Structures are given as C-alpha cells and as structure tokens.
C-alpha cells in the first residue's frame, strides 16, 4: 500500500495522484498540510507536499515520486519508448513547472489565499508567464499528447497545472495567458476524458469550493 500525503488543492499533489491512478496502483490518500514540525520534516525534508510512504519508506518531491513509480511499475509506462521522446516529455514537464507554474505563484496566492499582490509583482508574473507560454508553444505537439503519441509525464503536469493557470491568469491578469498554446481547448477536453484526470479534477474542484467557502465564512 502506498500512502499519498498532501492536499487536493496542490497541483504537485495532483501530479502524483494522476500518476498513481494511471499506474493502477493501490493507494490511500491522507489529508496532510505542509508543516515545519520535526516529525513532518523526517518524511519530507523541506516540509512540502506531497510525499508518499511506501511500506514505511518516505519519499518527497513530486518528480522523484513519478520516477520511482516508473521504475517500480514499468508496464503501465508514463514515458514514451524512445529516448528522444522520453527526454522531450521531461523537458516539457520542467518548462511547465519552472516557467509557467513558478511565475504564477504570487497570482495563485492572491486569488486563493488573499495574499497581497503589488503592481510590480503582477507585471513581472505577466511577462514571465508569456515568455514561458512561448517556450512551451515552440516544442509542444498535442497530437494527441504534448510529447507526441503517448500520454506521459508532460501531460500529467499539464493536467495538474493548466486549468489552474488558465483560471488564475484570466481572473487576476484579465487574460487567459495559456490560450496562446496551440489547440489548448481540444487538448484539455482530451485530458478530461481520461479517468485519472477526471477524478483528480473533480476532487480538486470540490476541495477548492470547500476551502473558498470556509475562507468566505471566516
């Protein structure tokens, strides 16, 4: 049994969750917010989520967990067969996380948690995300998946981040910056047809609605 610790609001948590479902692995979800407590740091050294426990063995960092799953359960592959396509999938995963998700963090913190957002932060995020979208657009394929014919790491990360990034840029910046990606709507529709993604999106939406309701009532 694998135990997945974290919260459904986290795209990094959802990245691991989609991979687990795709692999057909038996796992349990345990609601676990980030923490700096020593007992938590013993499981996740930076105090972040998600982390997994595998028969008592703790492993943190979402990409490391995906790599462990790929090694442990190779038959339900989440990387394409050729070295070039595997590298492309990993490249796209890093581009999305480093140059789309990270610059958007101040926007997400503002929208979801009500954190202050200065005009300079808004402008910096806008510029950085546009540059990241341009970078992804140069190599993305979406025929049918981001790295080509095979559903892979790149698509798991896209499923975890694209809906949130589309919404937060539209609401905070007044424009869905991801709309510039090639065939985005068709691609998101294809993603949503995968049971792993549909389940994870539904759980994320329910968690977000509950969180926003509690925040509004406080």
Automatic annotation (TrEMBL):
One GO cellular component term noted in the UniProt record for this chain: cytoplasm
InterPro entries named among the record's database cross-references: Glutathione-S-Trfase_C-like (IPR010987), Glutathione-S-Trfase_C_sf (IPR036282), Glutathione_S-Trfase (IPR040079), Glutathione_S-Trfase_N (IPR004045), GST_Omega/HSP26 (IPR050983), Thioredoxin-like_sf (IPR036249)
GST C-terminal domain boundaries: 82-211
Gene3D superfamilies tied to this protein: 1.20.1050.10, Glutaredoxin
Keywords: Transferase
PANTHER family the record matches: GLUTATHIONE S-TRANSFERASE OMEGA (PTHR43968:SF6), PTHR43968
Name of the featured protein: Glutathione S-transferase family protein
Keyword Transferase listed: yes
UniProt cross-references to SUPFAM superfamilies, sorted A to Z: GST C-terminal domain-like, Thioredoxin-like
Alphabetical list of PROSITE patterns matching this protein: GST_CTER (PS50405), GST_NTER (PS50404)
